[in-house]
Amino acid sequence: MSGLLFLIPVALFLGLIGLAGFLWTLRNGQYDDIDGASERILDDRYDDKPDV
Amino acid sequence: MLSCCPVDYALNDITEMRQSKGLDWTGDLVADPSPWVTYDQDGLAQLDILVPEAYCAACIGAIEGNFKKLASVKYARLNLTRKRLTISWDENLNSAKDMMVVLEWLGYHGQPFNRDQFDNLQTDSYQKKLLTSLGVAGFAASNVMLLSVSVWAGADESTRNFFHWISALIAIPALAYCGQIFFKSAFNALRHGQLNMDVPISLAVILATYISISETIAGGAHAYFDASITLVFFLLAGRYLDLSMRQRARSAAEQLMSMQAIAATIILPDGKRQSIKLADIKLGDEIFVAIGEKIPVDGMIIEGKSDVDNAFLTGESIPDLFDIGDQIHAGGINLTGALTIKVTATGEDTLLADIIRLMEEAERTDAKYIRLADRVAKLYAPAVHILAAVTLLGWMTLGKGFNDSLFIATSVLIITCPCALGLAVPAVQVVASGILLRLGILLKDGIALEKLADIDMVVFDKTGTLTMGQPKLINGNEISDEAMRVAASLAVNSKHPLSQAIVKAADIRGLKYSTNGNVQEEIGQGLYDEKSQIKLGKRIYAAPESIQVKEDIQAEFYLSIHGQNPIRFAFEDGLRPDAKQTVAKFKKSGLEVVILSGDREAAVKNIADILQIKNHKFAQNPQDKLAYVQAQQAAGKKIFVIGDGSNDAPALIAAHVSMSPGNASDVSQLSADLIFQSQNLSAAYKVWQVAKFSRGLIKQNIALAIAYNIIAVPIAIMGLATPFVAAIAMSTSSMIVTLNALRLRLKEAGLS
User: Fold this and answer.
1) Closest B-chain CA to A16
2) What is the topology classification, in CATH, of domain B440-468+576-692?
């Protein structure tokens, strides 16, 4: 039981970090140009950051 | 592909670029985008340009890289999904037109557009909300599911209760947030006295949550937190797929809308020229139309004369000569001479507006099509409610308590919830529209794919649809290399389609011809080289003494070299390379094929004979075409119309489903449900195949979803469905329909 008391908050915390990360990418405009992002990664001559 | 992909040119400024282009590249052919320029707080000019041809990494490199090399440009960004280029620059150094010229020079055609006009903020924020909800639901579902798995694995009572409480803690806020999309829509439907799919969904989610909370408080064994949050997650995924497909369709429509927004060049009273938006043109304004430009308004020519290509308006394949005093119509293309026209009609009064009125009429009479998914939902939603209510009442009369009966009724609602159904259709449509995109076909509306599956008649326009819309030399075997070389050296100076056909034929033979002779163009007549006294042009101009060759079903030019017999060049609007094959395939599949053309009888008959189409009509005006389509549809036919001209537009709208080539007139592209961008007419057949196959998959998926219900519902009604059974059943059925949708990809291999 004591293991659970410790592990469950850890699991939830990690999950929340993931969720926060997802929401950040969303706000940051990372899904605005999905086709472009998949092409930009192939070459470092041009800007590889999302448009903001 | 066409422009893909230019080299990464090293350039420093626009002057150098113009020189390297080797032409007088002042950009006469490029529309002046100044009406679309906006300014930010630092005084930098900003312009959004739609670049439909950009589609890969090298395009990003070429466009962004080269714009950034210009000293004036501060920012250049190409959004490949929306095909938009945004640039901001210092207008003291370069004009807005320079930017368009640079883009043109890089090999891309751009259309300036107004961001505010297109951006649908409502849809954008809905999409954000949907994605956020999907993220939250995904997080909550995975965590709750982990806890539930432990419970199902046989956690002891205290652990189980503890886990239920944690699940409640995660699931309740998550549901309150993510469920809103369904609750709102359900509430709206109920307020208008209707039932939609969201009503049973909302009911199931709310009841399941309520029951789970009371079970948790009572320390009971079964909580449905996992089922309700997973349900929401799956359904949100389906919604997102549906939306992203509709958005893809929307951006196709966006591209077309911007094409309409081309500016015109007005001549001010003091003689200056200025670019203004079409909407701002007034009666009596004088408009300048350069060679190669589209005529923006109806008007009378007051200066200059030119050959004008009216194929889009009338379907005639050969251009006509227009002189001072002649009326010309918006939509024609000015081929050989610069014109000044006085505007005699704007907006409502133009020939184009007449066509648009017909289009509106066609739209009014076009029957509203109900999507397959909606038709199923109409039956499904009431059935689910009745089933749940009967279960509740049934168990109560059998002597169970209200709470226990409600628990079973809720499990019926959860089990029947249309997870699989909600994914079945969007999953297929997203895969299908992706395939079409790779085939170069734009889908403007998802419904088009559904409609396409039940066509039984195909109507083709001739000029520009079955044919290339450009004349091709047909008597090349009668013409010597020498004659061809001489003709090409004259023809290369003209934009007349027949001249261009000669140049093309010479290029195909690999002939070298001089391009800098002293050639004059007698507009509407032909070309004349002063030094050698060679003429190329119409019979009356170049060879008045020669006898006319039989009835003129073909266009012709004569080459007359001093002291020699004139040489005849005959032309024909050539068929698209795969027109015959495509028509044959449609006929073989049992569809009726018809030609409706605005062209002359002989020209239409000739094509119809080659394609072996018995049912062909000639000299059809827009009304005739519309009337034919409407009459056939009234008789129960489902017609697929394929056409490119503005004169086809009303018929395109009235048709069950319609398609236009990518080089078609604006109006017809706006009217058609699908646009194909390749040279190949076989796109029409392919898209039909994809549509039929996806229709089959959608039906299979719906059948699978129903079969699943037939098995699962009795279990639920009997009260045997535990949360564990519900979770397994829901996930499997959703997986199965999604995987089934992906089978469409296998079909793709056979198409391309």
Assistant:
1) B139
2) Rossmann fold (3.40.50)
